[in-house]
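FAQ: What does a ligand-bound record look like?

Like this one, built around malonyl-coenzyme A:
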Amino acid sequence: MSQHNLFAALRAAFPKDLDTVAVETDNGLNYSWRDLERASAMMANLLQSLDIPLGSRVAVQVEKSVEAMVLYLATLRAGMVFLPLNTAYQSSEIEYFVGNAEPAVVVCSSKNFGWVSKIAFKAGTQHVFTLDDDRTGSLLQRAAHHSDQHTTVLQKADDLAAILYTSGTTGRSKGAMLTHGNMLSNAQMLKDYWGWKTGDVLIHALPIFHVHGLFVAIHGALINASKMIWLSKFDPKLVIAKMAEATVFMGVPTLYVRMLAEPGLTREAAKHMRLFIAGSAPLLIETFNEWTQRTGHTILERYGMSETVMLTSNPYAADARYEHQAERRGGTVGFPLPGVGLRVINDEGQTLPVGEIGGIQVKGPNVFKAYWRMPEKTKEEFTADGFFKTGDVGKVDARGYVTIVGRSKDLIISGGYNVYPAEIEGYINDMPGVAESAVVGVQHPDFGEVGVAVVIAKSGVILSGDNIIADLKSQLANFKIPKRCFVVTELPRNTMSKVQKNLLRDQYKDLFTA
Ligand code: MLC
Ligand code: AMP
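The answer part, i.e. the structure of the complex:
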């Protein structure tokens, strides 16, 4: 069997001189390529010593650190499946993911060990380790006893590398199963498409529990043997200061908006940079234009999903191999990437002509295998001829540029994080005295979009919006909390009695922008 382990391909790209710097952190540490190689070998040996089968899930909820990235590499290396979890998730959210994925290993911050281990042991997990962002924790202590030599476990392209939980259209979160082949094909293609060069340096300022920071950014740098400037948290001033030593930056639109608010963002500050990439949420044309004016650089916007990694991208430069490549166009997400099939479909399932708006469907080596233990859901989300229904609504123009105009899925994207109104409504509806609720997304100058809750009380009950928000905060990840909550006497309904969310969105549209 030939080797398709994603780690093997990333490792093969390491530079000849393993003692050069691979990662430089914001607290003054330098990790060489040899450090990544040895530390991931030790952790991979530890995972294998646990006597758990190949394909076991390793669920990880830890603060951002280089060691957390090494744990990701070690998991691939050992033929296990990485399951990253947002650090904002609270116990009921973690309970669901751990119960559903049944990980053999759970790694958490030591401050959360009490409640996380309780959930994990209840779900049958045998091994719970801690890992903190100051290079401490039982994971590192245990790994220190293992050899720094390790032979990467053979994997087929179709073997599972990671599970990313995402809610999609309705119901509970679904685990999107991504294979080694999904991610390697995407990473190799993007290296070429985005013109990665020898000497490129990436500023890594995103969290590492979603596609953008974990896969697109890390794979992009590693497969090009590029150094990463590793920021534990996004700080606009620090990113601008680091631009003098870097060439590539990736961010969600909120990061660009926040950097534009800094007077230090100038052409001079950005002159060493080669490429600014944005995605995960719509980039406003105003942000796109202002960035060009202030820095002289045109942001390259691309579009992707947890289920598919990257799907479309604006061009890096005009390139004869991709006949239609031309300029980066604000307001569009560019062209389907090489190997990605993309079509726009109407409600009857017919492919629409140029310029017409419909549901976006995609196909390609990057598209995930299935939803974890949900064969019915998986079937629903694919067409008979193998296209995945993204839930995004868009159009393709005559030159092939794709524009996303909306979503058929009821989803709010806030600062690059997905928030599912149905989930929040479920929590509000369970509160005493609540008759019904609706959560809608409205424009926000910083986060792009935020949730607003509109609630009806049961007859005779007096509710307070602030109390509802406080109650939600005690149960849910902070980014999911609606920024405002209104208690009203009725919700707008259509003739079928369905709440008309479009009217609510309209009613509250200027709440944060007026
Ligand atoms: C933080 N807050 C948010 C929020 N992030 N509210 C709404 N949406 C968000 N995204 C709130 C917190 O609840 C808190 O509120 C307050 O802001 C301060 O929290 P914080 O953690 O200190 O915030 P900050 O560090 O400023 O974080 C903002 C951010 C972060 C933009 C840096 O959200 C972020 O890193 N976003 C990137 C998400 C990302 O990587 N997405 C990629 C998905 S992959 P309070 O009330 O408690 O004080 C994907 C596929 C693809 O979509 O195509 O890439
Ligand atoms: P996630 O499930 O977190 O991976 O989020 C994927 C969703 O983010 C997509 O289905 C889109 O709705 C949205 N998205 C990603 N990139 C873009 C973009 N450049 N413009 C608009 N929406 C985007």
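Follow-up question: can I read anything off the structure? Yes, for example: The chain has a mean pLDDT of 96.
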